[in-house]
Amino acid sequence: MDKKVSIILSTYNEAPVIENTINEIFKNIDNVEIVLVDDNSSDGTFEKVKKINNPNLKIFSRKSRGLASAFLLGLINTSGDVVGWMDSNMGILARKFPTMIEKLDNNDVVVLSRYVKEGKDERNKLRILSSQIINLLCRIILSNKIKDYTSGVFVMRRSVLFTIVPICYGHGEFFIEFLYQAHKRGLNIVEIPYTHPPDIEGLSKTVSNIFRFLSLGFFYITRIFVTFIRRN
Question: Model pTM?
Answer without folding.
Answer: 0.91
